[in-house]
Structure prediction request, 209 residues.
Amino acid sequence: MSTTPETAPKRGSRLPRLARRAQLLEAAQEVFVANGYHAAAMDDIADRAGVSKPVLYQHFPGKLELYLALLDTSCDAIIASVRDALKSTDDNKQRVTATMHAFYDYVANAQGAFRLVFESDLTNEPAVRERVDRVTHACAEAVSEVISADAGLNREQSMVLAVSLVGMAQVSARFWLAADNPSLPQEHAADLVASLAWRGIGGFPRTES
Prediction:
């Protein structure tokens, strides 16, 4: 459940350290997603979480450190979803579909965490750029391992194809979400892009060991 001024704990209420950290990250995500990094203020995040600024600074020494911690969580989430999708079946057509749905589910999440990863206004910061690039690389690495094993392509060839698939997934998902009241349901959009992707990657015959 999202933290709002009405639902945030009253100032002074004590929480275990890990629970407090999770609460602060949730509040920070709402503020960063709504305002972007540059317009977000630590005062706003503290108010949203229902804590004082000193409490916020006990957990995060500054706004950048807080943003990076939140970005790490968001990046880990989409990477884990893609890996889970690839492990969910041995059928490669279904793997493509599951991977597309993983990206669409991530982008469509009401909390908007994807904006921190794919639409950050702080990508000129090396630490942020490193994390954003890690998402593409880690997801592509996972996909390329399947392509290499099944199609007998070398690592460089597999990575080029994998990066193309990952790019198709995240760009199309963001395009779909950007439409005002999209008439195309999320599931149908993901299936449509998965069909396109499979028509391409399916052209590489599966080799038998």
Observations:
- The chain has a mean pLDDT of 88.
- The two ends are 48 Å apart (CA to CA).
